[in-house]
Amino acid sequence: MRAQRKLRIGSPCVHPHPGTTNPTSINPKMRLTWQRNQLNLILPIALICCCLLIDATNAQEAQQPWYENLPAVAMDYKVHIDAGKEDCYHQYVKAGATFYVSFSVVRGGDGMAGFAVRNPAGEVVKPYQWQATADYTDQVSPGGYYSVCIDNQFSRFAGKLVNIYITVVKYDAWDKYAKEIEQLQLNMQNFTATIGTVERNINDMMGYQAHSRHRESRDYALLLDNNSYIQTFSISQIVVILITCSIQVFFVRKLFEVKSSSKSRI
Question: How is this protein annotated for GO cellular component (predicted)?
Answer without folding.
Answer: cis-Golgi network; endoplasmic reticulum-Golgi intermediate compartment; membrane
